[in-house]
Amino acid sequence: AQLLDVDKDGLNMRLKSEQEQMQASDSVRMMWIFREKLPAFKMRDQLLQSISKSQVLVVSGETGCGKTTQLPQFILEHEIANGRGASCNIICTQPRRISAISVATRVAAERGENIGETVGYQIRLESRQSVDTRLLFCTTGVLLRKLVQDPNLRGVSHVLVDEIHERGMNEDFLIIILRDLLPQRPDLRLVLMSATINAELFSQYFGNAPMVQIPGFTFPVAQYYLEDILEKTSHRVSSEDGGRGRGYQDRSRRDKVDALSAVFEATDIDKEYSNYSRVTKQSLQSWSSEKLDLGLIEAAIEYICRHEGEGAILVFLTGWDDISKLLDQIKENPFLRDQEKFLVLPLHGSMPTINQREIFQRPPIGMRKIVIATNIAETSITIDDVVYVLDCGKAKETSYDALNKLACLLPSWISKASALQRKGRAGRVQPGVCFHLYPKLIFEAMPQYQLPEILRTPLQELCLQIKSLQLGYVSEFLSKALQPPEPLAVQNAIELLITIGAFDESEQLTPLGCHLATLPMDPRIGKMLLMGAVFQCLGPALTIAAALGHRDPFVLPIDRKEAADEARRRFAGDSYSDHIAILRAFESWQLAKLDGRDRQYCWQNYLSSATLNMLENMRLQFLDLLSDIGFYDHSRGLQSYNKYSSNLEMVRAVLCAGLFPSIVQCKQRGKRTAFFTKEDGKVEPHPGSVNARVNYFPFPWLIYSDKVKTTGIYIRDSTNISDYAVLMFGGTLSSNKSGDGVEMLGGYLQFSATKKVAQLIQELRRELDGLLQQ
Ligand code: ADP
Ligand code: MG
């Protein structure tokens, strides 16, 4: 105990007070001046008082007012001033890895320290913290893992849950746990931080907890929609649209619109507009899958750079694919590619880190900063000098279609709240301009708020977490959520987990389930990786899992669809497998990359190099995760896990392990093959699949990634597999009543096999369980 005290004294001395900070370096002083001007600063005393009076506090305030960077710091400074510097332990969660790093780095700098001293961060597989760390920024997932280790969070004095308005699944999950924990930890303080006005909802959830709103200030932002750009060439605009008749009396604005339409002349805006002008509320959903018109966005950037005043441009796109395509387009644009004049910066959640300096600081005089971002720049990251915002109107959103068994992450229209939030980003330092690159009609059809993630995603991952945190029965626990998910969605998730062998019949985690619970991904993708590692064909498993988690690397140019299909068939060879086609495409791209021919290779083979690079990155992330849970050893290298990688039977079996129960039975009807699934009856391979044109298909089963329902039901990306693969790797098995057959998954598909075979299989499966248990 004495040692501890000495340590504490030492630490107290190291924890600087505000006054000491003021005497620190110039940069700290400058930041101090900046901090004092933030709206949150004026509320400092009130915030601290409320926190000391009440166990839970809900803080809301406009983005950029200083919630994330200041509030945890106020608490830290307050604790230091009251002699509790050494004993406090403040945790602030962030929904995204990149914001946890960025915020922690900023706060450490504001305190004149290196990251990892008093202020640290922790994200999965990466952390900067030490025994001195008193304020830790971490992802919500990391805090959930800490709860697995210590359900009471002993030693933690404050938990701040940030960006709660986003209604992410992890955050909704975390607040159920914390609400239950509070009575057992009366000394623990909880602060919920939210951007918008939805504070009441959270306050009610915590028994009418007090709320503090930080008043904000932003400059007015002019808003334009797609039709405004066409205003001057009015013959193009259909008369029923809602966006006409706005005043353009202002002469200079008139000129601007003139210039704008001149720049847009070259793009396909006419077609775009006539498409969009037919949109109704009902059809909004089907429009979201339309590709973004990057030409339009490029033209808008060029227009601003040519005709508008100074100020950074912030472009909202949906994901890495469009960001990297737009970057390529800008590199080719004769006007915009001038690197002396334009500083073009991508900002995306899966970038390893962001260059704080370039993103946040003003560029040198004469240079314009153009940030091309996903919706991460909507609330988590605030770039002060943005004056122009280009809003494509979409964001990637996970959605759970009952038909598709895997969660899909697809672009869809954002909510009104998000569109307004994006607009607001333009008015931080002066009046700004926002171009929404869609008609006002679309804006009006957008939902007010986005549905909380817990209501629109599959719940398998969540169910695994609930079990590994030992929170009781899944449905009972989830009924305590802010907005509980549908019972049917919960039941589907549990059933799937039983089917893939992660839960036993009484909803308890199996050894496989325990491992899957530690992997932050769809459990079926996790299972494919684990099986890939155990059965020594990890390389192929990594590639295919990455493609399932992201997308396949093939591009389908509308005008050369035939040639592109042909390229895909070439990769598939005689494998009857879309997945093996992906695998071969990836592997030959890697070879081409070794001697710098990758761009050309992509071009010739209808592959997307942005996607392939992303897949390569994801493979590395998967390896880190596998190594974290003991299924991979970096020092041995991937080749030691690839003994059977060229054995396609093995690869197919591992694919089956991951994709089951998405399985199709192939029945021979004379010279043709017909395809059936248990729940849909007759289905067809998707026309884009390499299995589409096969008349006679000499195999019993196809395993597939997902289904689409259009005129019929089509299975996309499929691979043929053998009876043995299904029996060995296809989820749980149990003997049926008569005992001489093997009934799969309580009647999912009937096999006839002799009792002996059934016994043998079960023995093998037990062996497999044993392997996983080690
Ligand atoms: P909120 O959480 O309320 O949205 P933040 O605390 O994130 O606000 O940001 C407060 C201010 O600090 C903003 O003006 C933002 O631009 C600035 N800021 C945040 N992070 C950095 C950084 N890494 N570098 C420079 N400025 C930053
Ligand atoms: Mg914030």
UniProtKB/TrEMBL annotation:
Reaction equations catalysed: ATP + H2O = ADP + phosphate + H(+)
Record's family?
Belongs to the DExH box helicase family.
Q: In the record, which residues are listed under signal peptide?
A: none
Q: What class of enzyme is it?
A: hydrolase
Gene Ontology CC: nucleus
InterPro entries named among the record's database cross-references: DEAD-box_helicase_OB_fold, DEAD/DEAH_box_helicase_dom, DNA/RNA_helicase_DEAH_CS, HA2_WH, Helicase-assoc_dom, Helicase_ATP-bd, Helicase_C-like, P-loop_NTPase
The answer on whether this UniProt entry bears the keyword Chloroplast reads: yes
A GO molecular-function annotation: RNA binding
Protein name according to UniProt: RNA helicase
Domain Helicase ATP-binding: where? 48-215
- Can you give the residue ranges of the Helicase C-terminal domain? 296-470
The record's keywords, sorted A to Z, are: ATP-binding, Chloroplast, Helicase, Hydrolase, Nucleotide-binding, Plastid, RNA-binding
- Plastid: present as a keyword of the record? yes
Q: Which Pfam families does this one have?
A: DEAD, HA2_C, Helicase_C, OB_NTP_bind, RNA_hel_CTD, WHD_HA2
The family database entries (Gene3D superfamilies) matched by this protein are listed as: 1.20.120.1080, P-loop containing nucleotide triphosphate hydrolases
The organism sits in which domain of life? Eukaryota
Q: So what EC number does this one have? A: 3.6.4.13
